[in-house]
UniProtKB/TrEMBL annotation:
Residues 8-124 form the Aspartate/homoserine dehydrogenase NAD-binding domain. It is an enzyme of class 1 (oxidoreductase). It comes from Lachnoanaerobaculum saburreum DSM 3986. The active site is at 200 (proton donor). This is Homoserine dehydrogenase. NCBIfam families: PRK06349.1 (NF004976). Belongs to the homoserine dehydrogenase family. Pathway: Amino-acid biosynthesis; L-methionine biosynthesis via de novo pathway; L-homoserine from L-aspartate: step 3/3; Amino-acid biosynthesis; L-threonine biosynthesis; L-threonine from L-aspartate: step 3/5. Keywords: Amino-acid biosynthesis, Methionine biosynthesis, NADP, Oxidoreductase, Sodium, Threonine biosynthesis. It catalyses: L-homoserine + NADP(+) = L-aspartate 4-semialdehyde + NADPH + H(+). GO terms for biological process: methionine biosynthetic process; threonine biosynthetic process. L-homoserine binds at residue 185. NADP(+) binds at residues 8-13. InterPro entries: Asp/hSer_DH_NAD-bd (IPR005106), HDH_cat (IPR001342), HDH_CS (IPR019811), HDH_short (IPR022697), NAD(P)-bd_dom_sf (IPR036291).
Length: 288
């Protein structure tokens, strides 16, 4: 039996629970293990729910449980997520997370602890949605010298820009639609001001260079100043506007930025629309 603990039981945490429950037979077929959720950390009790008996309120009940093999962190933010993840790794448990803020701020340190303890620290879902970019960079392209990584890394802003481009909506109307559909948070600042994309390109740049990249040092400009006039000019020039996170590697130096850019029709990311992400990697041997 392979036992899992989930930290935080909101939308993401409950989704992890459902995947393990509904796809349990498939997971066993592919891993050779019976996988079960043994404990759930949350401040709520969930009385009457099927997982009520699994809920704990003290992280120590998970850290000190030697029967728990892996921890899935779905809390978000950097604290106490960092402390909880660090302690889980130190206790010899595997950890997986989609928390980009955590990985951008503490990823290098957590990877070092995981290596020392001979456990895994996985964060594939922290960048690019369902695009398997983390393993691509670290495993498939392990022998590559990277020249540039460029991406549309935020589905919310890409949806807004797509609406502005295709339907002529202004920024506020497109944002409102995104919020109604659940694509944008009630407070969309992290998305529309580029902070989310900034953290993600910092993670990718760190993996490409093998060094910690401080996201706070990356020039970041969001899409709040883009208006319909910008798209009129873009269409006249047969271009589109996308929010790019970009990192270039030249002569041992890293140059990175986040900003809306004009994109030509023959660019690989031109056709990435709606809520979708897209990432372009250029290496010294494989090209783009």
């Amino acid at each position: 039996m392979f036992n899992v603990a989930i930290l935080g039981f909101g939308t993401v945490g409950s989704g992890v629970y459902e995947v393990i429950k509904e796809n349990n037979a498939l997971l066993k077929q592919k891993t050779g293990e019976d996988i079960a959720v043994k404990k759930i950390l949350d401040i709520r009790d969930f009385p009457g729910s099927e997982w009520e008996s699994l809920v704990v309120h003290d992280i120590k009940e998970i850290i000190e449980d030697n029967d728990i093999d892996a921890v899935v962190e779905t809390m978000g933010g950097t604290s106490p997520a960092f402390e909880f993840v660090r302690d889980a790794l130190l206790s010899g448990k595997h950890v997986t997370t989609s928390n980009k803020a955590l990985v951008a701020a503490h990823g290098t340190e957590l990877l070092k602890i995981a290596k020392e303890k001979n456990v895994n620290f996985f964060f594939e879902a922290s960048v690019g949605g369902g695009i398997p970019i983390i393993r691509t960079l670290t495993e498939s392209y392990a022998g590559e010298h990277f020249k540039e990584i460029t991406g549309i890394l935020n589905g919310t802003t890409n949806y807004i820009l797509t609406k502005m481009d295709a339907e002529g909506e202004d920024f506020e109307k497109a944002l409102s639609t995104a919020q109604e559909l659940g694509y944008a948070e009630r407070n969309p600042e992290a998305d529309v001001k580029g902070h989310d994309t900034c953290r993600k390109i910092a993670i990718l740049a760190s993996l490409a260079t093998g060094k910690e990249v401080n996201f706070e040092e990356i020039y970041t400009e969001g899409i709040t100043k883009i208006d319909t006039t910008d798209f009129e000019y873009a269409k006249h020039m047969k271009l589109s506007i996308k929010l790019f996170g970009d990192s270039k590697f030249e002569d041992g130096m890293l140059y990175a930025f986040v900003a809306p850019v004009m994109v030509e029709r023959d660019h690989p990311l031109y056709m990435v629309n709606d809520v979708f992400n897209g990432i372009m990697v250029e290496g010294n041997m494989l090209g783009k």
